[in-house]
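The following record pairs a protein chain with its ligand, zinc ion.
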Amino acid sequence: MKLRRVLIILIVLVLISSAFFSSSLARFTDEFAGSDTALIAKWNFGARGEDDTAGEFYNKGFTFDLFNAESVEPMDFGVKSFTFTGGGSDVAILYDVQMNADDLLWLTEGTVAKTVRTAVYAPFVFKIIAEINDGAVDTAPPVFSPPDYDSGWFRPVDITTDEDGYFSIFDHTNGEPFFSPGSMDSVTVTVYWQWNTSCYINDTGTAFVSPDTSTEISETYLPYYQAAYDEYYGPGGLEDRREAAADAVSDYLDEHGSPASDGTWEHDVDCELSDEEHNSEYESLDPEAKEDYLLEHGGTDDGTGGITWSAHSVLCSADHFREYNDLVDEEHDAIDACETSLMAAYDDYDTLAADALAAKESVKVIFRIKGDQIAPEQNM
Ligand SMILES: [Zn+2]
Ligand SMILES: [Zn+2]
């Protein structure tokens, strides 16, 4: 008999649905080569999403709304699974699951922490696991090993895809995953996702951070953002430093006044020398300088050889312009530290990405499940 190749492609268009995006859509297509009348074997390849009725498998679409039809915001995360089965088909089935996240790549460009970036992505990371049911006849398909980032998380931008943007979520090193003829096994693919900018910010050339995909929240934010937040707003943090530097500048002006229109910066201050210090300075001077010193420091001969020093002011001896400029420099440095901080980088990046996503008509993350009939003479 002539081998009939039955190809079923299940396309799940997971729209990131939200305030930003339109509703989700799941679509299923059959593609048959040749006429349907030649299809003689039982074919029951099907799939179901975790939100579908338990035990039911569908050949005509199923539910897989990765983002739960909720608005997606920075730091959101979640997990969804879908399951597919050969369903006891008469033939062995080679299967594959391919992902396409092209819509999340090369989103926009803009300034991140004062540096212009030409490539800003939707900062999602994913982790995928695949399991087969207990007591399965066949073996669970090995999931591909993503580059970088331990623990299985990956950025779509780091994955090599075909020209249409698809890549297989399985490792094909030791052959294609399959269901044997008559197999009722089912494979469950679980997709974890996070909006995690810590995995992207190192590309910006500004703030550097070790990517952190942990999601245990002990304070207000996910750990990766909390660290940046604390560095910025925590005690002695960048915000405190900036405020202290600004206060130091205004305090200096309060204390020392400001330059005159002729470019001089002079003012009087109370003389803080004690009587003993005045006496000692006075005694060290020659007779002519002593006269000037008495005038300057309010000293009068008390008639018994001693000097009485009354309260008086003297010219402030501070190097005003140098001291003031040093304080202004420190304030500028403190402002710069805020603007180039990790938190600024996160906020800038997230804002660019969110705005770019919102401007798109739709954003799709596609999981395509394929099942191919294996020729009967092919020995699995
Ligand atoms: Zn002064
Ligand atoms: Zn004095």
